[in-house]
Amino acid sequence: xxxxxxxxxxxxxxxxxxxxxxxxxxxxxxxxxxxxxxxxxxxxxxxxxxxxxxxxxxxxxxxxxxxxxxxxxxxxxxxxxxxxxxxxxxxxxxxxxxxxxxxxxxxxxxxxxxxxxxxxxxxxxxxxxxxxxxxxxxxxxxxxxxxxxxxxxxxxxxxxxxxxxxxxxxxxxxxxxxxxxxxxxxxxxxxxxxxxxxxxxxxxxxxxxxxxxxxxxxxxxxxxxxxxxxxxxxxxxxxxxxxxxxxxxxxxxxxxxxxxxxxxxxxxxxxxxxxxxxxxxxxxxxxxxxxxxxxxxxxxxxxxxxxxxxxxxxxxxxxxxxxxxxxxxxxxxxxxxxxxxxxxxxxxxxxxxxxxxxxxxxxxxxxxxxxxxxxxxxxxxxxxxxxxxxxxxxxxxxxxxxxxxxxxxxxxxxxxxxxxxxxxxxxxxxxxxxxxxxxxxxxxxxxxxxxxxxxx
Length: 456
What we know:
CATH topology of the largest domain: FAD/NAD(P)-binding domain
Structural class: alpha/beta
CATH superfamily of the largest domain: FAD/NAD(P)-binding domain
C-alpha cells in the first residue's frame, strides 16, 4: 500500500447509499487517488425509503428517487456489473464481465436483497413480486395502479406493513399473513406489536397472524395462496416481504469473516478474516456489516437502517485514509422510522435488546406515546408513535446508560403512564417470517442459556 494514504487505488463494491456517502467522504477527506464504484444494478445510487411509501402511492416515480451527490466524485462508475469474487491476497475484485479490479483499499457495501419465495416455480407466477429495488417498486406500483381486487402480503415486518398501508390508502383490499403473533413484533416486541395489529385491523387490513403461507396458486398467473390453517386467500397480486438476504455470497472464497449474518468487522469498520484477525485494507459499511457496539454489551449488530448506512460509511471512509491514531469508532445509536396507517413510528436504540418495556408518555389508546425499553436495569431503546420530538431526550438516556425504568417526569414532568414495567416479549426471530431489522448475534436477552457438559 502506498505510504501516502491520500493516494493509491480504492474500490467500493456497492453503489447504493453507503457506497455513495463513503465515496463523497473519501474525496472530502482529501483522497486524490483512483476511486472505482461497482454496482450490480444499472441505476446510479438511489434512496430506498420512498420506494415503499411515495412510489407505491403513485406520488413519485421509481426513477425519481436518485440520491443527490454532495460533490463531484471524479469516480469510475461500473454499474450493471456484479462483483463475483475477491482475491484478498492479490488485492483484486473479480467482476461478472471477466474483468478484475486491483485495489490498495476496498470497501464492501453490497447491502441486502429481498428474500425470495422459496419455491422457484411459484415465485415465477405472474403477479408474485418482492420490494427492494427501484425496478421492484416500479413493477409493484404499476400493479397497484391497475386496481387489483386483493393483494396478499407475506410478512408483517416494516416493509410488509408499509405495503399494506399503501394498499389501503389506495382503497385496495389487502391480506397480511404473518407467522408471528403480530406485525412488527420482531422489531418492537409484543406490547407495541399489539398496537400495530389493532392499527392494521382498524384500517381494514385482513390480518392473519400465527399462520404461514404453504403454497402460491395459479396457472401462469397468481390467483391465490393456501394457508397453514387450511384457509385459502384469493388475490391478484402477492408481495413476498419475508425480510432480506445479505449479499455476501461473492465473498465465499475470500478468507474473510463473511456469511449469512453479514461481514464481521471491528468498531472501526475493518473487516475480520475467517480466523478473527482484523485486516487493514478491507472495510465494510451499511446493511451488510456486523459490528460490535459497547452500549449493547459488544454484541455484533447488523442494522438495516438508513441512518446507520450513512454514519457507518462516513466512519469507514475516514478510517480508510487515516493513520491508526486518527481513526475513530462507529458508535452511532441506531435510529429508524416508518410511516404507516396514518402514524409515524420512530425508534432509537435496539428495542429487541430488552427484557422489559414501560409506556413513559402518551397513551396506547390514543396511538400517541413513547415506549421505553430496558435490559438489566438500564435504558436500551425508545419507540415513539406520533411523538418524535422526544426521541432526542431518550437517546441521551441510552447513551448514558440511564437507569430503567426512567424516573417519573423524566421527560415532560408527568409520572410514567404505566406504573410498572412489563415484559417486552421479544420473540425468537426464528419464529418470524420477515426477520428483524436489527440482528444481534448473541442470545436473546430474555432467554436463559443452559450449558450442558458431557458426563455432567
